[in-house]
Amino acid sequence: MIIGALAGWLAGTIMKGRGFGLLGNILVGIVGAVLGSFLFGILNVITGGLFGSILMATVGAVILLAILGIVKKA
Q1: Domain locations in the chain?
Q2: 8 Å CB contact between 20 and 8
Q3: What's the pTM?
């Protein structure tokens, strides 16, 4: 959950300049981690350790927020 909160906060900061609050950051981070794990698996990218987990979750969360932003505009 700590990695999810950190990844969600990082993604929120990257995409919109601020986080989403603790629960929002955790939710975005967890969904981002699942999405990032799936995408990194398809691309055969291997990450290891704490930094790799945070990176993968953050990349997934940024992609998630980008998709949600596109859907929200439509």
Answers
A1: 2-73
A2: yes
A3: 0.88
